[in-house]
Amino acid sequence: MKLALIVLSVIAFSAMMASQNAEAQVVAGEAFLLSGSGYSITPTSITDATIELLFTTARQGNSVTLDLSRGSIVFDEKELKISDFTSTALRNGQIIIITSKASDLGGEQYTFRASARIVAKAAGDSVYTLTGAITDSSQKTSRVFYTVLVSEFADQAPQTAQKEITIRFLKGASSPGEITYKEQIGGARFQFLSEPRITIEPGTTITFLNEDIVSHSLKSGTGEYKANKRTFTPDGKISSGEIPPGQSWSITFDTQGFYRLFDEKYPWIDTSVFVIDKAKQEASKLG
């Protein structure tokens, strides 16, 4: 009952905020990370739920379509991988409509339908309320309610003509209880790496420099929240090994796509890399 009251309060507050004027976020020709948490409601239980979508956007007529790179949902203590994804952003990006299929680790099939409405926007980030329904093969339907952050992968030119970029493990990043060490984004949001997300051209080399007082390591994979705790699953594509204090590790990204890198020992430390050929992207827009 207590959780139900919390859900209703969040929905009521979100509806009030959504009625306020908010500038649209999702526009064509960009890449975004949508992530958030909330609740799933079945006939017998209310449990934590999370969602994470990595997508690019393109113009189609008067609307913007979303092309999913990777997506997952956790609801009712099940983890679903999203497939057959169709999504459109309407009203200049203020509303997002989603229809997709999904499957859990045991192969059970689901359908997922949802809509999101913008609440507020800051530079590069927006908050949406997202409500939806997840239906299994027996036609049992669960409702999901999320508050999600949609973050744009900012265009950033390489720091040198040789396409070399340095991302730093910030000093003290291994000790999240000590907030004084963390760098801030826009004076508000704390971070543990100097670049929590970045867009680069193919062939760019990123050097990860460890300015912390302990060793760190990075692996690629996917992340989700379970019981309000973030977890990551390695995909075996990238692994740095130990990076001691004062040392660095470099990797060149030749293939376009999304890459999520995380530190297994310190799961709050992660970064997202979006690799795209901007020249080809601009040519496709003109074509």
List keywords for this structure.
eight-stranded antiparallel beta barrel; five-stranded mixed beta sheet; disordered N terminus; Immunoglobulin-like; Porin
Task: Detail the poorly predicted runs.
Answer: 1-22, 155-161, 184-189
Give the percentage of residues in beta strands: over 45%
Assign an overall shape: globular
| Share of residues in helices | under 10%
What does the largest sheet look like? 8 strands, antiparallel, barrel
Overall CATH class of the largest domain:
Mainly Beta
CATH architecture name of the largest domain: Beta Barrel
The residue-averaged pLDDT reads: 80
How much is the radius of gyration in Å? Answer: 19 Å
Count of separate DSSP helical elements: 2
Number of discrete domains: 2
Describe this structure as you would to a colleague.
This protein has 287 residues and is mainly beta. It folds into two domains: 2-152, Beta Barrel (Porin); 164-281, Sandwich (Immunoglobulin-like), CATH 2.60.40.420. 9% of the residues lie in helices and 56% in strands. The chain has two helices and 18 strands. The termini are far apart.
